[in-house]
Known about the structure:
By secondary structure, this protein is of the alpha+beta class. It is built from four helices and 25 strands. α3 (119-161) runs antiparallel to α4 (167-206).
Amino acid sequence: MSTSADLLKELRIDRNASPPPSGRGPLFAGIAVVAVLALGVLGWLLFARGGATEVRTATAVAIGGAGGGNASVLDATGYVVARRIATVSAKITGRVREVLIEEGQSVEAGDVMATLDPVDANAQESLAQAQLAAAHSQASSIQAQLKEAESNATRLATLARQQLVSKSQYDQAIAQRDALRAQLVTAQRTAAVAADQLDIAEIGVDNTIVRAPFAGVVIAKAAQPGEIISPLSAGGGYTRTGIGTIVDMDSLEVEVDVGEAFIGRVKPRMPVEATLNAYPDWKIPAEVIAIIPAADRGKATVKVRIGFKEKDPRIVPDMGVRVSFLEQAAPEQADAPPPGVLVPASAVVERDEAQLAFVVVDGKVAARTVRVGRTLGEDLEITDGLAGGDVVVLSPPAELADGDAVEVKEDDGSNS
Length: 416
């Protein structure tokens, strides 16, 4: 039992004894120093970030530079279209014998584009010719008989006056003459009808030749020799409805859709500058031809036709194009400097009786005094103080000053 008691005494904890020395004290001290430094850096970053003003921005758009003194009042996009474009077909149904066109080929009005098999048309023409010849022969025969009948009637008239023949014989000769005269008229009319039928048959032969209706360029070849072509769709995939498509390149123009809210800026004969998507550095002079007097209810737009003042083979149908509607400067302002840029109206503020705009440069703002021109919708025309491409602050806070650091707020999808 004494042994068990001794063992229990060894297991008893002496709470008055000093703690044993430990080697982790310096480690905890190092961690504490690092944590203090990290908190200091984080605090500095938060302080620096909090010093930048969060702003929304927009880019100044240059206007009037390429218009020779004209200011752009509206931009729109559209497509090049042709006013004269035709898919050429034959007037009759037939088998294609020969196709004489290729894509890109220029044709003149009346040039042969294709021919159809003329066997049926030629047979109809031959039949009409034979019928006309028969009608002429019949008319000639009746005319010869009539000539004899007239001579006989004249001779019997003399004999009847001398009472050498009976009156009945004379009356019979007169009746035969009149009958032949009527037959001759009928034969002549039959010959005229046969001549008309021959003309129709010749038109049928001519219809086997497909000609270009106007001068232009072939943009599509739709048929090949051996295929059946018809002016009416047969509802299947084995009958063509056209030989090819030609476009009058002199009839090319631009069609754009302008929003209803801005259509008031567009006027007939208004100068326009067109830029093809394929040639962004090529500025093409144009003008408004017409404003179509109908609106698209679904898109809330009005169609505007624009005509090119210059013709060029590089302009082809269905090309995308961007147009700028230009406002002609007044004669008394012809020597005035061209307008500068367009910016949203909220980018200009008035401070100390001066109009300012804040331009963002390398994370800071520079206050610039600007000269405001016209008001174009929700934009202002800045004639001095800004250049195209400058990034300006929208609705700058009252405390924003020249040289302040700013942070550009990401666009949330709303119009800035």
